[in-house]
Amino acid sequence: MYNNPEKYSKLIKDEALRLGFMQCGIAKAEFLEDEAPRLEKWLHSGHHGEMAYMENHFDKRLDPRLLVDDARSVISLTLNYFPQEVQTDPDAPKISKYAYGSDYHLVIKDKLFQLLNFISENIGEVSGRAFVDSAPVLDRAWAKRAGIGWIGKNSNLINKKSGSFFFLAELIVDLELSYDNPFETDHCGTCTRCIDACPTDAILSPFVIDAKKCISYLTIELRDEIPKTFNDKMDNWMFGCDICQDVCPWNKFSVPHSEPGFKANENLLNMKREDWLDITEDVFRSIFKNSAVKRTKFKGLTRNIDFLKTLPD
C-alpha cells in the first residue's frame, strides 16, 4: 500500500493545488542540523524579546520526528494572501495585508485537514499533524528544503514566481514520499532594499532580525507599552508591518489571491483616520469578528493607535 512515493507525492500535490494552495513541496523529515546553531545563537542574543515561547521545545523545533511518531515527510504548502485592494485613506493607521480578511489560522487549518483526509482516503491509514504558525515548526527552513524558495535578507521566504506575500503551513506525516530538491540559490544578490527601508533598523544584518525592534513585534507580540525610543519610527503601522516586503523587488510578481476567506473587509479598508482614532470596542468587535487582529485585543490596538505620531492636518 505504501510503496509508490512518486505516485503519492503527485496525488498530494495535485490535491493541494485543487484546495487552493499556491505551492506544495515535500522534504524528508529529519533533524535540521544547519538551523540548530543559528536558532540557538538568535535566542541567546535575546532577539526574540518577550516571545518566551520561542525558547520552548527547542529540540522539537529542529526535529519533526519528535512532533509526529515515525514521521517520514514534511509537506510544505503556501497560500497566497496578496490583496486586490488596500486601505483607502492614505493617512489612516495601517494594518498588515495578511489581516484584511478572516483569520488565516482557521482558513488554512481547514484546508490542511481536508488534505490530510484526502491522503487517508486515497493512500491509506496515514498518521500526521497539521501546523499553521502556532507550533514549534521552523516553517521557512522546511519550505526551503522542500524547494519552494529561499530565505531573503528580511528573513521571509521568497519565491521567484510569486514573491513573499503568502502564508506557510505544513503537514508532517508518517508516509515516505518523493522528496524535492532543496532550494540552494540565494536570489537576493547585492540588494539591500529591505534592510535600508526598515525604519526601526530591525534587520541587524542579512537574515538576522532583532524582533524587539520589529514593528510587527511591537504592535502584536509586545504586551507592555511601546518604548518611546520608537516615537516617529512606526511609519503609521498599527498592526503588523509590510515595509520589508513592499520594497522587495521580487514582490512585483505578486498577484491578488482568489481565496474567499481572505476577502478584505470593506468596512476595514474604508475606515478614515478619524474613525480609527475614535474606534470603540463595539466597532472593534464588528470589524475584527473573525480576524487575526483579535489577537492584539481592543486594548492592544488602541495602545498602538495612541502611540502613533499625530499627523498634520
- Major sheet characteristics: 4 strands, antiparallel
- Number of extended strands: 10
Detail the poorly predicted runs.
none
Rounded to the nearest angstrom, the radius of gyration is 20 Å
Order of helices and strands: HEHHEEHEHEEEHEEHEHHHHH
How far apart, in Å, are the first and last alpha carbons?
Answer: 69 Å
The amount of beta strand, in percent, is 5-15%
Structural descriptors:
alpha+beta; 4-stranded antiparallel β-sheet; 12 helices; 31% helix; globular; Epoxyqueuosine reductase; cobalt; cytoplasm; epoxyqueuosine reductase activity
Overview in brief:
Belongs to the QueG family. The chain is built from 12 helices and 10 strands.
Explain what the structure shows.
With 313 residues, the protein is of the alpha+beta class. It has one domain. The chain has helices at 5-18, 35-44, 58-62, 104-122, 139-145, 193-197, 215-221, 243-246, 266-269, 273-277, 281-287, 297-307; strands at residues 23-28, 73-80, 94-95, 128-131, 150-151, 157-158, 166-173, 203-205, 208-209, 237-239. The strands form four sheets. The chain has a four-stranded antiparallel sheet with strand order 1-2-7-4, sandwiched between helices. β8 and β9 form a beta hairpin. α1 runs antiparallel to α4 (104-122). The chain starts with a helix and ends in a 6-residue tail after the last helix. The relative contact order is 0.18. The model has no long low-confidence stretch (mean pLDDT 94). Its EC number is 1.17.99.6. Residues 179-207 form the 4Fe-4S ferredoxin-type domain. GO terms for molecular function: 4 iron, 4 sulfur cluster binding; cobalamin binding; epoxyqueuosine reductase activity; metal ion binding. Pathway: tRNA modification; tRNA-queuosine biosynthesis. Keywords: 4Fe-4S, Cobalamin, Cobalt, Cytoplasm, Iron, Iron-sulfur, Metal-binding, Oxidoreductase, Queuosine biosynthesis, tRNA processing.
